[in-house]
Structure formats: C-alpha cells, structure tokens
C-alpha cells in the first residue's frame, strides 16, 4: 500500500474508534466476594478481556457505525484480531490496551518475522494498531474516552527487542513515513530470525 493510502486509513479508523469509545460500556471482572481486594492494576491481567469487549462491541454496533461487516474470529497467532469491512475496503486491526494515568512504556508490538512474512506474501496487507485506554476501580474496568492512539506497523520507529525478536515502541509516537520496500528491508536488517532463516535458505 502507498503511504498516502495508509494515512487515509488511519484517519478513517481514528474517526471510527472515536465513535466507538463513546458507546463502550464499563464492565466488572467479578463481584466483591470473589475479589474482595480488587484487581492489581496491571494491564496484562485484563487486557485480553478488554480487547474482546472492544472487538465484540464493534461487531455488535457495526450497522450503527456504518460498517458492512466486522470479522473477529481469528486465532491468537494471527497478526490482526479483527477485519472491518466498509464496501469493498477492508481494515486489518489489532487492538492494544493502555492503563491511563501511568507512564508510557516501550511495548511489544509484533513479532518481526510474522510481519515480514505477512507483508511479503500479501502486497495489499497493512495492519493498523488501535490502542485504547482503560482505568481500574477495584473490579470495575472503564474505557478512557480521551485516549486513542492509532498507528501502522509500516510507520513504526523500528527497535527490535533482541530477547524475543519483537518490535517495541511507545503507543504514543511520531510516525516515520516509509514505503513498503523500505519497511521490509529494515525488518530484514533488524531481525535475527529473518537473517538466520535467509542464511539457511541460501545454503
């Protein structure tokens, strides 16, 4: 995809998720008898549940939001966890969760090898990451209506964690605009697993 096309997709998804945030319900993990002291304020403890709420609410409210279809049944190994369709256009989306009120940290975004394989095999593929904010109140989870970060993998500042070969980035960052060929070349240069696999294939 061209740089301008990805920018247009990001703008559309910003508008779409800004609307969704306004209707996302708060929810309880459990009652006070089960968790009398509440949840520890670690995002990882409820991030999967929050992602499910976001994806299912998008699908449930598809018609209200002007969407033709929202597919959400994908394996955990898939780069995207929803595909939003509007007319003949598909948006591949991965949801991220951030606990608001705390500091921004470097976060694992995606495995470099998976990104490289997907982008190499499908020229029309572009994954957009949508990060929503949450807050904790004992066992109640609420969505922050003022926090929304949306970015493309292709425009990420590329730092690869050598321990797990995943791209790490702050959810709030300045995009680095690069074309697809530049992105793939950079992934090849930064990833140990791609370098090793390329070396084996060359033998």
What is the CATH topology classification name? ECO RV Endonuclease, Chain A
CATH architecture: 3-Layer(aba) Sandwich
How would you sum up the global shape?
A: globular
Strand order in the sheet with the most strands: 1-7-6-4-3-2
Number of strands: 9
Give the number of helices: 5
**CATH superfamily, called what?**
DNA mismatch repair MutH/Restriction endonuclease, type II
Overall domain count: 1
What report would you give on this structure?
The protein is α+β, with helices and mostly antiparallel strands. The chain has one domain (3-192): ECO RV Endonuclease, Chain A (3-Layer(aba) Sandwich). The chain has helices at residues 3-23, 47-60, 112-121, 180-190, 192-202, and strands at 27-28, 69-71, 82-86, 89-99, 107-111, 127-137, 140-152, 159-161, 166-169. It has a six-stranded mixed beta sheet with strand order 1-7-6-4-3-2, sandwiched between helices. Strands 5-9-8 form a three-stranded antiparallel beta sheet. A hairpin with a 2-residue loop joins strand 3 and strand 4. Helix 3 (112-121) runs antiparallel to helix 4 (180-190). The longest helix has 21 residues, at 3-23.
Which features does this protein show?
6-stranded mixed beta sheet, 33% helix, disordered C terminus, alpha+beta, globular, 3-stranded antiparallel beta sheet, ECO RV Endonuclease, Chain A, 203 residues
Which SSEs are present, and which pair or pack?
Blueprint: H1 3-23, E1 27-28, H2 47-60, E2 69-71, E3 82-86, E4 89-99, E5 107-111, H3 112-121, E6 127-137, E7 140-152, E8 159-161, E9 166-169, H4 180-190, H5 192-202
Parallel strand pairs: 4-6
Antiparallel strand pairs: 1-7, 2-3, 3-4, 5-9, 6-7, 8-9
Helix pairs in contact: 3-4
């Amino acid at each position: 995809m061209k740089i301008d096309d990805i920018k247009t997709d990001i703008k559309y998804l910003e508008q779409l998720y800004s609307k969704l945030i306004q209707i996302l319900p708060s929810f309880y993990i459990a009652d006070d008898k089960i968790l009398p002291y509440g949840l520890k304020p670690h995002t990882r403890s409820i991030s999967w549940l929050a992602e499910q709420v976001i994806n299912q609410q998008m699908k449930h409210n598809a018609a209200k939001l002007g969407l033709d279809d929202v597919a959400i049944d994908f394996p955990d190994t898939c780069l995207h966890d929803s595909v939003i369709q509007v007319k003949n256009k598909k948006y591949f989306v991965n949801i991220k969760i951030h606990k608001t009120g705390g500091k921004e940290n470097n976060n694992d975004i995606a495995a470099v090898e998976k990104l490289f394989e997907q982008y190499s095999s499908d020229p029309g593929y572009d994954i957009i990451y949508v990060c929503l904010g949450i807050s904790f109140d004992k066992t109640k989870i609420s969505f922050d209506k003022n926090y929304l970060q949306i970015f493309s993998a292709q425009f990420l500042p590329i730092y690869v964690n050598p321990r797990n070969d995943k791209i790490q980035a702050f959810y709030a960052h300045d995009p680095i605009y690069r074309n697809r060929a530049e992105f793939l070349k950079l992934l090849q240069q930064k990833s140990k697993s791609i370098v090793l696999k390329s070396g084996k294939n060359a033998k």
